[in-house]
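[job 0412] stage=complex_fold ligand=fe (iii) ion status=START
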Amino acid sequence: MPHDHHEHPHSLLPSDPALRVKALETILTRKGLVDPAALDAILDTYERKVGPHLGAQVVARAWSDPAFLGELRSDASAAIATLGISGRQGEHVVAVENTPEVHNMVVCTLCSCYPWPLLGIPPAWYKSDAYRARAVREPRKVLAEFGVTLPEGQKVRVWDSTAEVRYLVIPMRPAGTEGLGEADLAALVTRDSMIGTGLPGVPS
Ligand code: FE
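[job 0412] stage=complex_fold status=DONE, emitting structure tokens
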């Protein structure tokens, strides 16, 4: 799958994201180009307002509303925008649906591309060298380490995110949830189930 990071200016900065951000912040603040308070506001947005609860709303709607699922299949970014969810790193979202035949799992082999507006800031393991290398090479072993064992007949399809396309896994709706409304359904949708390294919860 094509990956266009090679051309990005950010590849000239340190590869560790924390160092990279700190270096940028220092330079920009010294030059008077950014206001540290404005940066704090952005961080606050991603720490407290944007997070997996938004992706969970999308999944719950997809489970509940066939028309919405149809929109999600044809243009996921547009469908998501109808729920008021949009933003950087979420311009081209593709929804990949788990079925009894196929389990989807998302990685960014080159860096850490991730659907921020839907899932918030990526977890440390998602950015780790180990996950990025092994998700492609031995996805079932990686899944086992996350506590996920799939039926033998279910294939694993691994999607490599890029700066242009971010994937959202739509897990299978758990059995026993027929009577649940969207809010109760959303509560079962974990972050990892939308990356494909987990499965949704089951109703208690
Ligand atoms: Fe990336």
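The mean pLDDT is 89.
[job 0412] exit 0
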